[in-house]
Amino acid sequence: MLQPILFALLLLAAFGLFAWQVRKIRANILVGRERDMSGHAAERFRKTLLVAFGQQKMFKRLTPAFLHLIVYVGFLVINVEVIEIVVDGLFGTHRFLGLLGPLYDGLVAVNETLGALVIIAVAAFWWRRNHQPPVRRFTGIELRAWPKLDANIILYVEVVLMVALFLMNSADLKLHQLEGKFLPGAYPVSHFLTGLLPTDKGTLHLLERVGWWAHITGILLFLNYLPSSKHFHIILAFPNVWYSRLVPQGQFSNVESITHEVKAMMDPSYEVPTPPVGPDGSALAPTPFGAKDVEDLPWTAIMNAYSCTECGRCTSVCPANLTGKLLSPRKIIMDTRDRVEEKYNSPLIFQPNIYGEEAKHEPVTDLMAATLLRGKVTPEELWACTTCNACVESCPVNINPLESIIEMRRFLVLEESAAPNSLNVMFSNIENNGAPWAFSPSDRLNWADELYVAEKATV
Amino acid sequence: MTPIIPTPPAKRQLTVPTVADLAAQGKVPEILFWVGCAGAFDDRYKRVTRAFARILEHVGTDYAVLGLEESCTGDPAKRAGNEFLFQMQAMQNITVMNGYGIKKIVTACPHCFNTIKNEYPALGGEYEVIHHSTYLQQLINEGKVAVKGGESFQGRRITFHDSCYLGRANNIYEAPRDVLAALDADLVEMKRSKANGLCCGAGGAQMWKEPEPGKKDINIERTEEALATLSGQAAALDNLRGVETERAAPGEHSLQGSIIAVSCPFCMTMMSDGMKNKEQEANVQVFDLAELVASAEGLNA
Fold first, then answer.
1. Residue in A259, A420, A448 nearest the CB of B123
2. A47-53: Cβ within 8 A, 24+ apart
């Protein structure tokens, strides 16, 4: 009787804590500027199915795609067993899904096979990250102590969960074999592990319980670790793809407040809509052009930051990064998450962004001055971008680092007049000559002088 | 005995029509040829503009240019963050084009193409916009251009460098390749091509500034890849970074007479500079699609 009560309390605490953490993340995302991403449900659904569920963009690189697919499918299928564990735990039943008969045999067999494959895949992942030199995209200035540790913690936890699963199954199997009882399910892996276990029934029963409790407690602890980790992508990848842009990648956002100003300049009779007012009718502080800090970014950009699993595909294809410039799109996304957690709600377990000397950033002392722009992202990084969209194209969960880069460039240019001087020259050329170079507009048709075409009969 | 002087091929001088001239006659061109600033002012890209105008004349297109009424689309300003200047330029251009009743636009610049097609509608400029690679593809498919009767490209090795603003920005990968396929040349793909193509380094207003400090210029990185691809040096291609999908390197080949095909004025500048840097400009030429088609069709005069 004690176990179900303990279990119910554990479950309640774990899900309660998780919900509380998710609320904080939701609040963080909503400090971003409004952006209407409603509508186009059919198109969004299709995209989510392909890119998020179907992992379409992962398959540009086959080796990690297959390894990741194993862990992903393992996660989905093994979680069916979690339903069983929860029911068993609450009602004191034992393998209640066993009533499914042959279907249960199949389920357990698939679980065990996937569990073994997950251990192999995770070992491969660990090797790719930790051998010398590691896969290049697992290096970089932004991957300092915490992100590296986080990546390994996730791998270790996954192995522990799988080992607990096998301990539970093999002890259970052996116990039933010794007692001559029938155990529902087929156990292609545990079948070979029973030989490793002792033959004492009491110990076997204890081991089965240890495996069971370790598996479910591990899952619940891991659930509450997610909000502090890059592994949160297993949840946010789906809404992030759903709310990703549907327009061509080359289309940059339009700044509507500027449209009103320009229209008013060109047509004095144009009526600029009245700016929004506060609840008491007073004028609100004007929103700056572009982004200086996280709350100036669209909310989707902050959700991007929470969906990022720091895989580094964006940085690995960035032409600026490839040629040794400071720009790393992944860093901009990670900086965004660090900054929003530093300024608004921080994660539960600890504050990874100000964790130790080897943290991603120096410990922040003056929170207000450490804005995203200049506090974390330098103008040098921003000006190195060629807006080529390689980072956007490469992201398996449709994160758009380019949008944040452009928003911060807008702030530099429109609020601070801090463009590099050569760009200011280009701006004034456009203003004065209608071309980015210093040519006279009256020479614009000179290319057509003395132009001849060979006379041919048209085909 | 006087030597026999061959009669020069028949040629015709073109008067490129402007939209204003046509409007004076009460006419609107079916298609506006948006030349772009590089096409109008950059000496190298003017040759592309001239080649494309020859093709338009050759197939009898009902076209015109804005001439002195054309102004920068605002693309470099927008990419650099100067949204105000961009919108000023955009609305000025939209006012001109809407005033003339322009419906369809063709341009040889992917940046102008992207901006007018994707960013002008929000400001009141709705047009059917096509890039010249798509337009050339259509002409070839319709049989209006046979890509015959001029220079032969048979046996010459060509690699196409994707423009970011045509490719990733607007998903146009096949049209330029279809055009090149019509040349009957030896087409080879770089490892970083199509959606995984490597930028030439000039987009996002980089054309007008010095690069930030780094180990290498982006156009040099790309030039090295193009040269290794054209000459089939598998070993050099093995070490490339940022490759998403592996493909086998083409066989070894002499660089002499090879061509890098581009479809963007900035790519043209960056790749040409790269060839000069590698001292390969005598062997490898950089051509725009329109130039290749005009040569193959024998339209140069």
1. A259
2. A47/A241, A47/A242, A47/A244, A47/A246, A47/A398, A48/A238, A48/A241, A48/A242, A51/A241, A51/A244, A51/A396, A51/A397, A51/A398, A52/A237, A52/A238, A52/A240, A52/A241, A52/A242, A52/A397, A53/A238
Peptide bond before residue B265 is cis, with ω within 30 degrees of 0? no
* Same domain, residue pair A301 and A192: no
B250/chain A closest Cα distance in angstroms: 21
Instruction: Write the CATH number for A300.
Output: 1.10.1060
Is residue B131 helix, strand or coil? strand
The least confident of A4-18, A278-292, B87-101 is: A278-292
A417 in B contact zone (CB under 8 Å): no
Pairs across A and B, CB distance < 8 A: 282
Q: What is the rounded CA–CA span in Å between residue B119 and residue B160?
A: 27
Residues in B 31-50 with any Cβ partner in A closer than 8 A: 35, 37, 39-42, 46, 49-50
DSSP at B207: G
Helices (H), A97-200: 102-130, 145-179, 190-193
Does ipTM top 0.90? yes
The number of folded domains in chain A is: 2
Higher pLDDT, B301 or A415: A415
State whether CATH 3.30.70 applies to domain B19-137: no
d(CA A152, CA A143): 12
A455 is a domain residue: no
Instruction: Kindly determine whether residue B37 and residue A435, on different chains, have CB atoms separated by under 8 Å.
Output: yes
* Interfacial B residues in 264-293 facing A (CB < 8 Å): none
**Residue A19 CB partners (closer than 8 Å, separation 6+):** none
pLDDT tens digit string along A142-201? 988 889 999 999 999 999 999 999 999 999 999 999 999 999 999 999 999 999 999 999
Asked if residue A357 and residue A219 are part of one domain, the reply reads: no
Label residue B245 left, alpha or beta by phi (over 0 means left) and psi (-120 to 50 means alpha): beta
Q: Are B17 and B91 in contact (CB under 8 A)?
A: no
Give B216 to chain A, closest Cα distance, Å: 5
Would you say how long chain A is, in residues? 459
Tokens of B236: 């050099």
Taking only the tens place, the pLDDT of each residue in B172-220 is: 999 999 999 999 899 999 999 999 999 999 999 999 999 999 999 999 9
Q: Tell me the residue range of the domain where A152 lies.
A: 2-30+61-228
A355 vs A150: CA distance, rounded Å: 12
User: Is the residue at A426 inside a domain?
Assistant: no
Do A23 and A128 belong to one domain? yes
Residue B170's alpha-carbon distances to A246, A247, B121, B175, B216, in angstroms, are 12, 9, 15, 12, 28
Cβ atoms B169, B236 nearer than 8 A = no
Tens digit of each residue's pLDDT (9 = 90 or more) over A323-346: 999 999 999 999 999 999 988 998
* Residues 6 or more apart whose Cβ sits within 8 Å of residue A336: A294, A297, A301, A302, A304, A305, A372, A404
Q: Which of B206, B214, B193, B210 has its CA nearest to residue A327? A: B214
Q: Which residues make beta-bridge pairs with B300? A: A453
Q: Rounded to two decimals, what is the model's pTM? A: 0.94
Nearest-angstrom CA–CA distance, B181 and B175 = 10
Question: Longest Cα pair distance anywhere in chain A, in angstroms?
Answer: 101
Copy the structure tokens of residue B116: 């007018």
Cα of A146 vs its chain's centroid, Å: 16
